[in-house]
Amino acid sequence: xxRFITADEVRKAARAPxxxxxxxxxxxxxxxxxxxxxxxxxxxxxxxxxxxxxRRPLVCANFKMNGSPGFLxxxxxxxxxxxxxxxxxxxxxxxxxxxxxxxxxxxAYGLCERKTIYSIAGQNAYVKESGAYTGExxxxxxxxxxxDFVIVGHSERRKLxxxxxxxxxxxxxxxxxxxxxxxMCFGENLGERKTGGxxxxxxxxxxxxxxxxxxxxxxxxxxxxxxxxxxTGVNASNEQIAEVCDFIRKNIMxxxxxxFSNAVRILYGGSVNEINALEIAVIKGIDGALVGGAxxxxxxxxxxxxxxxxxxxxx
Length: 315
Ligand code: PGA
Hints:
- By secondary structure, the protein is of the alpha/beta class.
- It is 43% helix and 14% strand.
- It is built from 15 helices and twelve strands.
- Helix 14 links the parallel strand 11 and strand 12 (288-291).
- Helix 1 (7-15) packs parallel to helix 2 (36-45), helix 8 runs parallel beside helix 10 (198-210) and helix 10 packs across helix 12.
- The protein is globular, with a radius of gyration of 20 Å.
- The two termini are 13 Å apart.
- The structure holds 2-phosphoglycolic acid.
- Residues 62, 225, 230-231, 269-272, 290-294 line the site of 2-phosphoglycolic acid.
């Protein structure tokens, strides 16, 4: 999948109409090679060739409402064993995160020997630090119990619990204040895809990211999860994922600039498993996976983590 950036591409970029960004640019991804001629031409035409990115891959196991203390005990020891087998130096290359139900977080923290084998994510957090909010979980408490990440705006929360982009924005902000890195989920449903509304919906959902201060936005990890692919066994095709990922980075570039767009991590989620992970991992611009069903078997999640090894030292 190596792409050569040639002088022709530079000319094309120079001619392409620019929207809010004032300079033409070419984004370099993963294994791309920029020819010397292309570099020279870019300099003379004022086309920005973004430097290669070194986004650290991240895989997150979203247990959803599954698991128990006994399950977690077995799972975490199996995970350590399978990671040692399939990806012994994973800690140097990839963030491996598990998101168990909230009551299991302190147990997961205790089991992970001070987080040497995985990091922990909450699946949700409320927009307040404490108070009379029966049944809700404070992001600050999640942090205190051992989480470093939190999933925000998952489609199940949006659909079943009416979470809006405005609420998602509030959750992003307070989670970051609490010291958590939010994994912000978004994606179109089947009707929206069928009627050609995918990009519009995604642009709308990304407004949550644009509505928080940029220093906060820098802490956010994005997870593109087409709703029709979640829990259905039907994952989006590589072309569909690549197309949407490209749209996301362009939209971010227009709103937050090229450096931001290059640096932000974008995960894919929706029926990722130990078999399709290898193909998804090489899609340009995709930096990891949010995995539901398949992550409940430690062996499969370890294989998925191994699929998201950084390639040639950068991803
Ligand atoms: P799935 O779930 O892997 O079971 O499709 C993904 C998710 O909901 O994050």
